[in-house]
Structure to design on (225 residues):
């Protein structure tokens, strides 16, 4: 399984930016970096994904290191609704693109 | 709203019984995968279907089986239920198998085995 390493937990205050790190040192050239989040009792929700370049969408930004061995999910202004478990996942051709969910990062947002 | 719908949302079965869970994928999505999520853990890949063929399987016994229909909807069948099968079962769909495609999840089916 394509492995990623994330901190178990992080905290933020509401309306502050949040930077969620992810290490993926074994990434290969065709692997995509995907981020999902999951609220309690709900299915995982797609956040963002990228290959080499930084990506922005309405939810977040993804900053990918030049060597692609790490990435950072950026929530520009955290809200209480952003409190969730965030999963950084590599989609690889060797595993037919399946999503391997590790333990993720539990993000707590304080009002 | 992801366009992936699952049924039933909750069900209770007795050990040894069989269960069928259903999934309607997002319109036009030909790839469907199933995941099992036990309480307090991340989702675990069960298997994936692409254009009605099984296209990858995780570490689950043969009593976990599935189908994908011509309209790309899918079923997950579990025979001889065990207590450890109690979990949230998630269906996910994507446009095709491309690694850059987004995978959309349904809200899941909660299965309790007693």
């Amino acid at each position: 399984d394509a492995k990623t390493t994330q901190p178990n937990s992080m905290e933020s205050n509401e309306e502050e930016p949040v930077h969620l790190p992810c290490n993926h040192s074994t990434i290969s050239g065709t692997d995509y970096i995907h981020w999902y989040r999951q609220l309690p009792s709900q299915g995982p929700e797609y956040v963002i994904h990228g290959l080499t370049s930084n990506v922005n969408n309405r939810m977040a930004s993804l900053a990918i290191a030049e060597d692609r061995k790490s990435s950072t999910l950026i929530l520009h202004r955290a809200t209480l609704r952003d409190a969730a478990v965030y999963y950084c996942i590599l989609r690889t051709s060797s595993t037919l693109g399946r999503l391997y969910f590790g333990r993720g990062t539990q993000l707590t947002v304080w009002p | 709203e992801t366009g992936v719908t699952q049924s039933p949302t909750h069900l209770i079965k007795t050990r040894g019984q069989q269960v069928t869970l259903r999934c309607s994928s997002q319109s036009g999505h030909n790839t469907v995968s199933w995941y099992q999520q036990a309480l307090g853990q991340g989702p675990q890949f069960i298997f994936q279907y692409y254009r009605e063929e099984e296209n990858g399987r995780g570490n689950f016994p043969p009593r976990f089986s599935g189908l994908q229909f011509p309209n790309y909807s899918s079923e997950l069948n579990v025979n001889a239920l065990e207590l450890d099968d109690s979990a949230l079962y998630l269906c996910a769909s994507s446009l095709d198998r491309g690694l850059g495609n987004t995978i959309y999840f349904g809200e899941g089916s909660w299965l309790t085995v007693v």
Summary: Chain A touches chain B at residues 30-32, 34, 36, 41-46, 49, 51, 85, 87, 91-93, 95-104 (CB under 8 Å).
